Amino acid sequence: MKVFGLLVAIAATALTAVPATAAVTISGGVAVAITGVSSSTTSIDFGTVFSNTIFSVVGTASGDLAGTEGSFVKISDLTATSDAAFSFTSLFGDFLGSVSKVTVTGTTDNRTVSAYVLGLFTPLGSLGGYEAGAASATFSFTQTGSGKPVSGSFTFASPPAPVTSVPEIATWSMMILGFGLMGASFRYRRRSANVTFA
Description:
Elements: H1 2-16, E1 28-34, E2 37-39, E3 49-52, E4 56-63, E5 72-75, E6 78-79, E7 85-90, E8 93-107, E9 110-123, E10 133-143, E11 150-158, H2 169-187
Antiparallel strand pairs: 1-4, 1-11, 2-3, 3-6, 4-5, 5-7, 7-8, 8-9, 9-10, 10-11
């Protein structure tokens, strides 16, 4: 019986023990201006492939990423479609992810394409003591006329920045139709027929 009690005590201690080193992931963000942007279409839209012909540079940084200002970032091509792969490499870490949301606003005379990428960030160099963790990159590409140059920038955040969602037209249509049907059902009254027997 004493052996059983000893085994239970050892098992309980092992299950509740805290590891000596807990994994710590990066918490912070950077803003990057993309230089030398080219696009696969004369007017940017869904499906456009954005290329970066020159290394981009970190402008501002916060949190654990403070001190990375001025670092070069080599970004891959970004296709403005859901599930398209994207990556970047830098001296402070590598990011690999896929596009989870694309929005297009404006007309062909003044259009902005935004893409939200979710993925995994692996810290390197001076940040090598941190564990890999979830992160996001939010892109914005702007063109002020068909065939005109495209400007771009992105922000990188770890943990991932929240996604702001706007309901699609079909969602709004279904909601309005539902409210209309509810209103009609409240308005409709059954007329009861009184039957009398002689």
